[in-house]
Amino acid sequence: xxxxxxxxxxxxxxxxxxxxxxxxxxxxxxxxxxxxxxxxxxxxxxxxxxxxxxxxxxxxxxxxxxxxxxxxxxxxxxxxxxxxxxxxxxxxxxxxxxxxxxxxxxxxxxxxxxxxxxx
Length: 119
Known about the structure:
Arc Repressor Mutant, subunit A, 2 domains, two-stranded parallel ribbon, two-stranded antiparallel ribbon
């Protein structure tokens, strides 16, 4: 990141930031009918579509449609091994798509974002 900033002037950087915010504003205007709390807006250059494998999409879909009491219950619903589900949950949580909450000795996954918009 620092190397990128060394090669760009402050005014050029401000222009780039301004363009990004204008683009985000346009997206927000076009999505005002949607529940903005469920939308993740990501710059195209920062987005990796492989994050959303079919198995991870299924996790998001299940968490969106119902509450689960633990990651173990989610693994059973998905008919997958718990360690693999936990690995996917951690990745999805890193990108802000799900959240995990510790309740006693259980990890409870929750849906956070169900729509991704790239610009």
